[in-house]
Amino acid sequence: MNILKDITSTLLVLFLLSKANLAQGQNDNKNYNQYLNTITTAVPFLMIGPDSRAGAMGDVGAATIPDANSAYWNTAKTAFLEQEQAITISYVPWLKSLGIDDIYVAQLGYTWKPNERLSISHGLRYFSLGEIKFTDESASLLQIVNPNELAIDLCGIGYKLNDFFSGGLSARYIYSNLTSGASVNGSDSKAGNAIAVDLNGFYKKPIKVGEKPADYMFGFNIQNIGNKVSYSESAERDFIPMNLKIGTGINFEIDEFNEFGMYMDVNKLLVPTPPAYKEEGSGFAEDANGEYIIESGMDPNVSTVQGIIQSFYDAPGGMTEEFNEINWSLGAEYWYDKQLALRLGYFYENPNKGNRNHMTFGLGLKYQIFNLDFSYLVPFNQRNPLENTLRFTISFDFADVKTATEIKKN
Prior knowledge:
By secondary structure, this protein is mainly β. The chain is built from six helices and 22 strands. The chain has helices at residues 2-19, 52-55, 70-73, 304-310, 318-324, 401-409; strands spanning 83-93, 103-112, 118-129, 132-135, 141-145, 148-160, 165-177, 183-184, 187-188, 192-209, 212-226, 243-253, 258-269, 276-277, 279-280, 283-284, 294-296, 327-336, 340-348, 357-367, 370-379, 390-400. α1 (2-19) crosses α5.
């Protein structure tokens, strides 16, 4: 258990450091940590949690009890599924509180287990951005477009290396059509395309909490490692949301009918932080090539591999800002008789990095192979696209793996 304690302690240290106001990383006369400096990427919909179970627990998912939606959070978890097949369908309204009904995220996922150790998953996520009207300078209508984005999980593989640890790998195709070929700033636009992979692992071991049986879990997921995206021939290419997710959790049985789980995730985008440029007059100073001069931080126009590496040390505010880029989630889940679940969660993001700060709650219902989950979000300090919105997920679990194996033998 010493290794497990070390892992948990590491996550708690990350949590405390992300909240701390460290004295490092300051320029001679400027503290860059007092400025808003968010990291933006192409296809940000990839970071929208698609299912309501995780959504009700603050978007934890790297190290929770495996379910039909595990392929999104950590493909390695699917190797620990107890079902031979699982199907999930989710619908997430977007900006519903503003009266908009044509912006949403929909997901369809399927996981199957040929045997006890191996799992294979496929999925589709679709993001509709509604209807957008393009006009000229005189407000004359030029074109009506229906931008949309999708991610096709071509294949995800989870494999149990032993009774306690599994590894995972998944590959996806990403398509982003924001303008339907409309001319933007004099240049013809195009759809963006990318291929990305996830690398992940999951550890699950039975332990004792007092005299009660429990499962300790640890998981990690390096998501969306892929090429940069461009929407025109002349525009610079943008990073997709490559992300490091690390989680830990414990689920224990209170008695025959009651069980309770607690979970924590930390996330950090593996994308370069925008630098601070040298100011000159009312704008920024330029070098001989017409490029802005970087005062603090590093050049963000680098390759995918270099971007991942320098994302750990390139913030203009130094290590203070690097730790501020860590988001964290806390979640809790109570089950009664494996039929009714109550869930609660909290998500935190630093004010200078986006300021998402909200509570979540929800419930789950299970009847035989049928599962229905709901979640609701309550923002604390700013508007949120999901506020006043009821999200739901439907999933189906078909046949226990051992039962299915026995049937085949007979």
